[in-house]
């Protein structure tokens, strides 16, 4: 984090700074320092609570067997799309994938023929 010199004393602690100055034989020793007028430690961010509730609800709603079925369908769908898109895009790895794959557009895209594959889930 960069601040002007007159605000440096108010930065949250701990900061990494020089504990022992260098001399001819040794380089400087760095460690944690606390600025004189620090605002204190900033609490660690553990994510949005709503995201945890949604994830727990999803897992609880589907249960072990439901999650297994969802994972199997994800693998099946990814491999289906990989084979279908291989004719339009360059798919660098020609092997079974788990739930995602890499595809690269190389060259001009073909003109629409009235049929489109939806890439969104």
> Which whole number gives the mean pLDDT?
85
Helix content: 25-40%
Report the C-alpha radius of gyration, rounded.
27 Å
Strand content: 5-15%
What gap, in angstroms, lies between the N and C termini?
39 Å
Spatial arrangement of strands, main beta sheet: 1-2
The biggest sheet, with number of strands, parallel, antiparallel or mixed sense and barrel status, is: 2 strands, antiparallel
Succession of helices and strands: EEH
> Which spans of ≥5 residues are poorly predicted at pLDDT below 50?
none
Structural class: alpha+beta
Overall morphology? elongated
User: Counting H and I runs of at least 4 residues, what is the number of helices?
Assistant: 1
Work out the number of β strands.
Answer: 2
Task: Describe this structure in a few short sentences.
The chain has 121 residues and is an alpha+beta fold. Helices cover 31% and strands 9% of the residues. The longest helix has 37 residues.
Describe this structure in words.
It is a single chain. The protein has 121 residues and is an alpha+beta fold. 31% of the residues lie in helices and 9% in strands. It contains one helix and two strands; from the N terminus they run E-E-H. The protein has one helix at residues 49-85, and strands at residues 15-20, 29-33. Strands 1-2 form a two-stranded antiparallel sheet. The chain starts with 14 loop residues before the first strand and ends in a 36-residue tail after the last helix. The mean pLDDT is 85.
